[in-house]
Amino acid sequence: MDIFIVRHGETEWNRMKLFYGLTDVHLNRRGAVQSLILKQKLQNFPIRKIYTSTLKRTKETAKIIFPDKKFIPKKELDEKSFGAWEGLNADQIEAHYPRAWQHWLDDPLGYTPPEAESFQRFKQRVLHEAPLLLSDPGAVLFVSHLGVIRLLLSEWFPEKSFWDIQLDQGNYTHLQYQKPQFEIKEWNQ
């Protein structure tokens, strides 16, 4: 089976470098253009199913890429909540939550910011759902968030570190899956 992974298009909060996890923001103009570029890149692939998170930015991205196809929103593909830090940039977080910020810098996968979802809970919900989404034959496309994508790719390719996985908005990654193996066909194209 073919798997296509897309990071949602840019939002104003991306541009402003704000933490926003579950805050539900729209694509900005650049994000819409990135999605149109993806539409061109993906037009010749026979995508059978499209999964998104439940957040506007992923659904808007999917709708621009495939305006005539239905997509399936899945809460399990939502970004990790950053709780009280959402809507703040790194400098603001450090100023308002200096000790918590340092704890997070020291252990970003182990420390949970105030009112946020723990990384372990986030990992559990995403990885629990992933095999169910890969059970149908045919090509599937995921439109999700960088944290979710990093989590999936670092699980499927253990040699890739969570923090080292960088995928640009406006690009896709194409994988081939034949249980239990994943193979990279195209990366960040």
SSE inventory with pairings:
Blueprint: E1 2-7, H1 12-15, H2 29-42, E2 47-52, H3 56-65, E3 72-73, H4 90-96, H5 98-106, H6 119-133, E4 139-144, H7 146-156, E5 172-178, E6 181-186
Parallel strand pairs: 1-4, 2-3, 2-4
Antiparallel strand pairs: 1-5, 5-6
Walk me through this protein's architecture.
The protein has 189 residues and is α/β, with parallel strands linked by helices. The chain has one domain: Phosphoglycerate mutase-like (Rossmann fold). It is built from seven helices and six strands; from the N terminus they run βααβαβαααβαββ. The chain is globular, with a radius of gyration of 16 Å. The model has no long low-confidence stretch (mean pLDDT 96).
In short:
The protein has 189 residues and is an alpha/beta fold.
Residue-averaged pLDDT, rounded? 96
Q: Kindly estimate the percentage of residues that lie in beta strands according to DSSP.
A: 15-25%
Main beta sheet: strand number and arrangement? Answer: 6 strands, mixed
> Which superfamily, in CATH terms, is the homologous superfamily?
Phosphoglycerate mutase-like
Give me the number of helical elements: 7
Residue stretches low in confidence (pLDDT < 50, at least 5 long) are none
At the first level of CATH, the class is: Alpha Beta
Rg, Å, rounded = 16 Å
Helix content percent band: 25-40%
- In terms of structural class, how would the helical and strand content be classed? alpha/beta
Arrangement of strands in the largest sheet: 3-2-4-1-5-6
N-to-C CA distance: 19 Å
CATH architecture classification: 3-Layer(aba) Sandwich
Q: What is the general shape?
A: globular
Question: What order do the helices and strands follow?
Answer: EHHEHEHHHEHEE
CATH topology: Rossmann fold
